[in-house]
Automatic annotation (TrEMBL):
Binding site residues for substrate: 27, 106, 151, 196, 226-228, 274, 325-327, 354, 408
Organism: Streptomyces fumanus
Keyword terms, alphabetized: Lyase, Magnesium, Metal-binding
Name of the protein this chain belongs to: glucarate dehydratase
Enzyme Commission code: 4.2.1.40
Length: 429
């Protein structure tokens, strides 16, 4: 067996995305992703997926160029390689990163996000070479299925007038009845039994009403509300008081560890985050201040599947829960999330996934949810197969784009409907 990397292919693509609303604006009709293929001397190809915006591509290319000649098993070496590549300072804005709403963008976070795509591809190739599933390379699964939650969004029926995009059959959801209808469809189509509503879009009273309507429609089911830090501490506390009896947790009600710590100190409702604990350096302050009770990991920005396991171990040590955050992603990432989630003991909350919103994929077969769960594959590697025609078609869309969609910008997308729109100041309410 020869595990030496002989070739690395990077394919940026644009995938259709419905008009999902968040506090920054609305999703663009197409969103960039990067598909990574790592080929070994034996002709085995491993696949990975990560963010595809220009700043990630700029880093991925020099890292890819350094991989031929190295063994796919050298996962630790990926971090060393990434550290050798300089990050263009102009790419690190010091502002909240809109492609994931995950706190302030730093050079390290950029590097880790790129490494994650290579790490998953290397694990896939290694697993295929050894005849072992990725979960076995991570120490073995402790469950056979991984539960996901329905990720509900306020949503327009279609993208704004004059903006080309792919139609979807979800319809609009702009009030409590629309949100409940969307949740029903999620349940019918995928069997989800827990629900997360992306908030920070409408004044809190309207979002409280939507969560109340969900609680009435789905009594006893776990519910979450995530305004991505759009509320003040006082507003967060008011929402917590009004919804405390039905919420599994409140996700990033206020922005940043100090504000989250203040909210946490004054409510019994657990707080979750994918914004104030987004990298190892942010753990100490947040945990010692009791700012969060659940960390939503995202293997893309934590630097891969093994770093996700490390994060889970730290959370366990501090008695903090762990689950998973999601951004627009395709089946490769869902497979990767499922493998790592299957290895994490004490995963007590259903993971987030945008996958049901993605009508397009690069796999020969879509990954299925049954009863809100994805079965953990025992096939070698990730257990997925790339559809090269689909990949080529989505890459062609990227090549033909004039640059409008190569970098995710929800605020710019909102301006197509409201020319005066700017990213709202925080706290918004
Ligand atoms: O849980 C979260 O904060 C997210 O999923 C962030 C995402 O960017 C989501 O808000 C989105 O895609 O609009
Ligand atoms: Mg969140």
């Amino acid at each position: 067996m020869n595990l030496t990397v002989t070739d690395v292919r990077l394919t940026p693509i644009l995938v259709a995305d419905p008009p999902l609303l968040n506090t920054q604006g609305v999703h663009q009709p197409y969103t960039p992703r990067l598909i990574v293929e790592v080929v070994t001397a034996d002709g085995i190809t491993g696949v990975g997926e990560t963010y595809g915006d220009t700043k990630y591509l700029e880093l991925a290319r020099p890292i890819a160029a350094r991989l031929p000649g190295r063994p796919v098993s050298d996962l630790n070496g990926l971090f060393t390689v990434a550290d050798e590549v300089a990050v263009d300072a102009s790419r690190v804005s010091g502002r909240v990163d809109v492609g994931g709403l995950r706190g302030v963008q730093t050079a390290d976070k950029l590097r880790l996000s790129v490494v994650s795509g290579f790490e998953v591809a290397c694990l896939d190739a290694l697993g295929q070479s050894l005849g072992l599933p990725v979960h076995a390379l991570l120490g073995g699964k402790v469950r056979d299925t991984v539960e996901y939650s329905a990720y509900l969004f306020y949503k327009w029926a279609r993208h704004p007038e004059g903006v080309p995009g792919e139609p979807d059959d979800w319809g609009a959801a702009l009030d409590p009845a629309g949100v409940v209808e969307q949740a029903r469809r999620f349940t019918e189509r995928y069997g989800f039994t827990s629900y997360k509503l992306k908030g920070g879009v409408f004044p809190p009273q309207e979002e409280i009403a939507a969560v109340r309507a969900l609680a009435e429609a789905f009594p006893g089911r776990p519910l979450r509300l995530d305004p991505n830090g759009a509320w003040s501490v006082e507003t967060s506390l008011k929402v917590a008081a009004e919804l405390g009896d039905v919420l599994e947790y409140l996700e990033d009600p206020a922005l940043g560890t100090p504000a989250m710590a203040e909210v946490a100190a004054r409510t019994g409702v657990p707080l979750a985050t994918n914004m104030c604990v987004t990298t190892f350096a942010e753990i100490e302050e947040a945990f010692t201040r009791g700012a969060v009770q659940v960390v939503l990991s995202d293997h893309h920005y934590w630097g891969g599947l093994r770093n996700t396991q490390h994060l889970a171990a730290v959370c366990r040590t501090f008695g903090v829960g762990v689950s998973m955050h999601s951004n627009t992603h395709l089946g490769i990432s869902l497979a990767a999330m499922t493998h790592v989630a299957s290895t994490v003991p004490g995963l007590h909350h259903a993971c987030d996934s945008h996958y049901p919103w993605q009508s397009e994929d690069v796999l020969t077969e879509r990954i299925a949810f049954h009863g809100g769960k994805v079965a953990v594959s025992d096939a070698p590697g990730l257990g997925v197969r790339l559809d090269s025609d689909r990949l080529a078609a989505l890459h062609r869309r990227w090549l033909e784009d004039d640059g409008t969609y190569r970098d995710r910008d929800d605020t710019a997308a909102m301006r197509a409907a409201d020319p005066a729109w700017t990213a709202p100041a925080v706290p918004r309410w």
